[in-house]
Amino acid sequence: MVSEPLRAYGRRVLTSLYPNLFRAVVQIVVAFTVNLPLFILAVLSIAFIPLGVGVVLAPVVFQAIRSVADQQRTWAAEWSGVAIPSPYRPEPAGAANPWRRLRWLLADPASWRDLVWTILNVPVALVLGVLAGGLAVYGLEGVFLAPWLALISGYGWGPFWPLEDWGAAGIAGSVVLGAALVAVGGPVGPFFLKAHALFGQSLLAPTRAALAARVEQLAESRSETVDASAAELRRIERDLHDGAQARLVALSMSIGLAEEMMKHDPEMAAKLLAEARESSGTALTELRDLVRGIHPPVLAERGLDGAVRALALTLPLPVEVRIDLSGRPGGGPAGRGRLEAPVESAAYFAVAEMLANVVKHSRARRAWLQIEHSGDRLIMIIGDDGTGGADPAAGSGMGGIERRLAAFDGTMAVTSPPGGPTVVTMELPCALSSPRTSPSSGTG
């Protein structure tokens, strides 16, 4: 009678056979039907770049390789628990231009590691796939198929058994060795699949140099964010001390003096109270302006779209505004959502500072503003027909905008030749929340 532990082990072996075999077959099929053709196409597309055909073909092929590599990352995590982070550089502004897209893809070291993985995965997937699923299948053939063929024809084959006239010994040997292969091949299959995942991780994950650069970038960004926050707090404190606080102190003194003058000189007391009322209105205006500088109420109520449109109306020059936050190729308000509050605030103040620069420094007669959400990025483009020559290092406020965006892994690119025009492109990685769950979905 077979013991319960042995039966439990047998059930585990048989249960693991199907997923191991399926995954091994998938890896082998993908390697030969997808990886190998993509590698050949990639080599040909690179060779055809001087002819112009490769300029269009190479980006398509490398994007396809990235898609296959991303699928491999998903399988490695789901099947073997091996996490492979994405190492790719973010897509730059203007990547729709074929030359810029080609330069972005070929300048990324991760693209070349993907290409190496694409060709090396062909033999590696074959060997590890056969070991992951083939041993158990070969063992099952030795247990069930080979003995029946031997009984019918007198000849047979089995694990480690030559083609010959068998007999009872041959059949018994085939069954025993086949069962041993099944017993071993089932449990070790996941280890070979994990070995394949680790092979993919060695080429598809970010390199140590890339991780070190990323850590350095994050440390620098954090430092700049802390400095910017400290400067913002000092500004708020200064504005409160020099503005509203001073006016409130003067208001208190005026009211106190009016109380003293009420008995002896009611006319002067009335005049002091009128001045106090005027001072209170000025202090209230300054407090409102200070609050708007921290987080404009219109931004909380109407979102980035409404806040930016309201801001553009206050400028002394015409601003053409085009905003699409639908996140869909066709646009439209039906799909409009909201950005996360910190990202929304950073985007608003970046646009506000840039428009303020246009008014103060550009001598422009008109400006234009375009904001759209594409994929997982918010793209903001501000341009003007002014004199040009804008330099982020010249202390015009652009450096502060760049630091504010860097805190969210955002980027800023400035094109401003002498004589103009000036075009500033800012990008922020972000996602849109659902319109039903957005912060202002219930407001009018």
Automatic annotation (TrEMBL):
Cellular compartments per GO CC: membrane
PANTHER family: NITRATE/NITRITE SENSOR PROTEIN NARX-RELATED, NITRATE_NITRITE SENSOR PROTEIN NARQ
Record-annotated membrane-spanning stretches: 21-40, 46-65, 115-140, 166-193
Lineage top rank: taxon: Bacteria
One protein family per Pfam: Sensor
GO MF annotation: an example: phosphorelay sensor kinase activity
Catalyzed reactions: ATP + protein L-histidine = ADP + protein N-phospho-L-histidine
Putative sensor domain location: 27-204
Keywords in alphabetical order: ATP-binding, Kinase, Membrane, Nucleotide-binding, Phosphoprotein, Transferase, Transmembrane, Transmembrane helix, Two-component regulatory system
Gene3D superfamilies with a match to the protein in the record: 1.20.5.1930, Histidine kinase-like ATPase, C-terminal domain
Signal peptide positions on this chain: none
E.C. code: 2.7.13.3
Protein's name according to its UniProt entry: histidine kinase
Boundaries of every Signal transduction histidine kinase subgroup 3 dimerisation and phosphoacceptor domain copy: 232-299
